[in-house]
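sorry for the late reply, my laptop died twice this morning and i had to redo everyting from scratch. anyway the thing you sent over, i finally got around to it. pasting the sequence first so we're on the same page, its 507 residues, then the predicted structure underneath. double check i copied it right bc i was rushing
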Amino acid sequence: MEVKAHRPRNVGWARAAALLYGDWGTSKAYVIGAAFLATGYASFPIILAVCALTGLVAYNYVIVCKHFPDGGGVYSSARMQSRVLAVLGSLLLVADLTVTASLSGWSAMAYFHAPREHIALATIGLILVVGAINFFGPKHSGSMAVTLAVPTVFVVIVLVLLSAPHLTFQHLEPAHQSFRHNWTAFVGVILALSGVEAIANLTGVMKLDPGSSTDVPMVRRTASKAIFLVSIEVVLGTALLGWAMLSLSPYLKGLLLERWDDMLTVLAEQFGTMAFGPVFGHLFGILTALIVGLLLLSAVNTAIVALIGLLYLLARDGEMPQGFARLNPYGVPWVPVIVATALPVMVVAFSPDQISLMELYAIGVVGAITVNLGSCVFNSKLDLKWHERSVMAVTAILLLANGAQAQSYKILHFFAGQLDGSTPTDSPTLDAAGNLYGVTSQDGAFRYGVAFKLDTHGREFLLHTFTGGADGGNPFARLLRDAAGSLFGTTSIGGAFGYGTVFKVRP
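ok and here's the structure:
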């Protein structure tokens, strides 16, 4: 079969918007939960900052899609500057899309409440099914995306309406005084930006604007309509649902921390119960989990579609073997379909949990978008207006700072607010083997805090659970360690007279 010069242009703005929503729309599924996990009731400024960044990136990518109608995303823009930079950007984008497919699939299984011991296997099966669907082309996978996006928007609207009477600022806590702490938390929850690179890759299969041709293609109208429509829904929806989450009583803090990875289900259950009773809340929670899980499935599809498009473009430009550009009877490059499916399968197979996938995310997506925007800023051949170039430069600098922080930041453990404790208030103590020892001031079996050990793999072991009685409760200070390995600390309440204790514990 001969290699064709052009793939079919059959993706309209609605399908393009649905494919984008399959990634950006998932931000509501785990970003607000991740923000709460990071800073609790002080997370509202972080959620708003993520929304602002999403809107800023959307504006930039309307411009990018206008100037690069043949697809390729970061590869196309960087190639005009340097072939080496283009390959680097492509590798970052491959990493980004691979992790996006893996993380979205894993999160979908969390919403479907797959057993934790089988969640990796279930995610692999999901990715294989999505890859098989893409054998028949983006038009068909785009139709699937439309089918999944519409009910999700409906659920978001219902959630906003149910929570509206209960929205309050009463439970909000002030942001952490340290800029570094807030910036670190902000970087940790930027988990749904890769959709714009997916759309930039898809411009090569988008329907042309009226008056343009394959020789002089233009897709500005198609791309801008898709990006603006989705970004408005995502920004408003994420902000309102984040506010709704923080309007729930602090008495539910333990529940919110425990179920951060299916937060929209929790919101559906809680606000559904407030509106129409527990039966409705339970049923609405099930419906929400099903629909959001399917949307996350659509995010897997968006990432795989973008990977296919990128690998095809690389082959067409001679950066990969020409076999990668050979099309099947449906106009799909069949080797990239296999590769785009196999990569996330391998990542999931070697990942222990969802948190490990989140840690992989930021470097790829932020790096790819930064290289794309930076290449456009310094490309004098692009007919950019001064304000467009200025906004791109500011966005690129912000993302570069995010990427630098992501490379130096690693989460070792998330406290769930249950038996493992919550609200650690001081730095942990490090031993020679790399183990960490510390205390939490809240929760545990008796709600008075715990003393814990974290090994080098981030696994937590409880050394003592405080009862609030004779042994004390609510420890706040850092543990001290002697040469023999014993740990010493204090509690703020309990003991014989109720005013606290000094204690010793052996690991």
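The two ends are 67 Å apart (CA to CA).
thats about all i looked at so far, will dig more tmrw
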